[in-house]
Amino acid sequence: MHRIITNHIMDEDLSVSGFCEETFEEVSSRFTNVEVLGTHGHNVLARAKRYGRWFLLKGLSPDVAHEELYRQMLDKELDIMMRLQHTGVAQAIGMEMVERLGECIVMEWIEGSTLKKWLESDTTSSDRKHVASQLLDAVEHIHAHGIAHRDLKPSNIMITSNGHNVKIIDFGLADTDVHAILKQPAGTEHYMAPEQASTSKPDVRNDIYSLGLVLREMNLGRDYKKPIARCLMPIAERYQSMEEMKADLRRRASRRRTMRIGIVALALIGVLAGTATIAAWLNKKNAATVIVQDEQARRQVDSLQNELVKTSTLVEKSRLTQDSLRYHVGGMNDTIASLNIANSQLRQAQMERDARQQIVDKAIADGLSIIDATNAATHIKEHIDTVSDSKYVWIDWHYQAIQGEKKIPEYMNSIRNRFSSKELAEIEYALKEHCNNYESLIRKKIRKINVYFDNAIDDL
C-alpha cells in the first residue's frame, strides 16, 4: 500500500509554486501611502493603506476642521454608518486621528465605479435588473434601522468591479428620528422629493422618490414602468415603505408566471384533443377490416388485428397519460369559461381606459407644446449650433436649457382638477422625461464644441 501511494505521489507535478514578484511591501499597522483624492463639500477624501489593505478616509477640510458644527456632522455620519451592517452598504470601521488629515472616518475601500459611470458601459438588461434588486435590498435595510439616506443618486451608488455588487455610500446628509442635532432640509436638487426641500423631518418616502428617479435612469424595461411611476407620485400616494414596493414587484412577477402557466395548460388541452382523434380513427379502421370474406383476406385481417392489439395497448397508455394530464389541469374548462367572462369585462374596461388614455395623451401633448415653445424662445439651441469654441457659449446656458422644465409645475397646477393622481403622475413623468432629453441634447452639443469644456460640464 505504501508503495502504491509513493508511486502516485511521484507521478504528480512537484514543481515549486510561488509568487512571480520577488519583492514585497511592508505590512504596517499605521496608515501609509496616503493619497488625497479630492474634496467633497467641506470634506476631504483620501485613500490609505494599512495591514496590506486599502481604506477610504473621510475628514474635514482645514478651513472647517476646528468648527464644532462640522465636527458634529462627521460624528453623526459615523454613528449612522456604524448602525448598518449590510453587503449593499459601505462599511465604516471607526474614527481615527490620521497624520496631516486630522480626525477621519475610516471606511472600506470599494474597487469599482459609480452607478452613473457603470450605466455608461455596455450593460445587459439582466445585469441592470440584478443591480436594481440589490439596490432595493440595501435601501430596505437602511430604512429598517430608522434611517433616511436623503441623497440617493447614481453618484452615491457604487458598483464593484468584481461581481457587479451594489454599495451605497455617502451618509453625510442621512438622518434619523433619534438624532436631535443638525435638523434641516437637505438633498441634491435633481433627485430629491418635492417635499424634501421644505422639511427637516427625515422621511423614508423621500428616499423612495429618489429611488424611482434612479431606477428610471437604469432602463429596466416595461416591468418597472408602473412601479417607478408610483415612486414619483405625491408623498401620500407613493409607496409608503420599501416592503410595500418589493411586495408589489413580486406580485407583478407572479402574475406574469401565472399567465405563462395558463398558456402551457391550453397547449396541453390541445394535445389531449389530438390524442382522442387518433384513437377514434384507429377504431374506425378496425371496423372496416371485419367485412373481408375470403380466407386470404381473413389472414390479412388476423395480421392487422395483431397490429391493432399493439396499437390498442399504445392507445391505452395514451389514455392513462390523458388521465394524468386531466388531473393536473383539472377544472380548466371552468377556468376557461371564467376567463371568457373576465375577458369580456376586460375588453369593456379596456375601451374605457383607452378613451381616458386619449385624454391623458392630449394633456401630455399640450404640455410638450408649452415646453417646446418656451425652450424655443430662449434660442439656446440655435446659439450652440452656431458657436465653434467654448468661450462663446453663453455663461447661463444651463439656466436657459431648463426654462421649459420650469413650466411644468405651472402647467400641472392648471390641469390638476381634471385628472386623478395616477394620471397626473404619468403626465408629469412624460414632461420631465422630455425635458431631460432636451437638456441631454444641449449637453452633447456643448461637449462637441470643446473637450476642455466637457470637464466643466461634469462639474456642474
The chain-level mean pLDDT equals 83
Number of domains: 4
Q: What CATH architecture label of the largest domain applies?
A: Orthogonal Bundle
Shape: extended
**Number of beta-strand segments:** 10
Q: Work out the strand percent.
A: 5-15%
Rg of Cα set: 34 Å
**Percent helix among the residues?**
55-70%
How far from one another are the termini?
A: 76 Å
Name the CATH homologous superfamily of the largest domain. Transferase(Phosphotransferase) domain 1
What does the model show?
With 460 residues, the chain is an alpha+beta fold. The chain has 4 domains: 32-108, 2-Layer Sandwich (Phosphorylase Kinase, domain 1), CATH 3.30.200; 112-240, Orthogonal Bundle (Transferase(Phosphotransferase), domain 1); 267-330; 341-459, no CATH class. The chain is 56% helix and 12% strand. The protein has helices at 2-11, 68-82, 115-119, 125-144, 204-217, 225-231, 242-289, 295-328, 332-378, 380-386, 397-401, 407-415, 421-449, 451-459; strands at residues 32-40, 43-50, 53-60, 92-98, 102-108, 112-114, 147-148, 157-160, 166-168, 175-176. A hairpin with a 5-residue loop joins strand 8 and strand 9. The longest helix has 48 residues, at 242-289. Mean pLDDT is 83; it is low at 1-10 and 286-293.
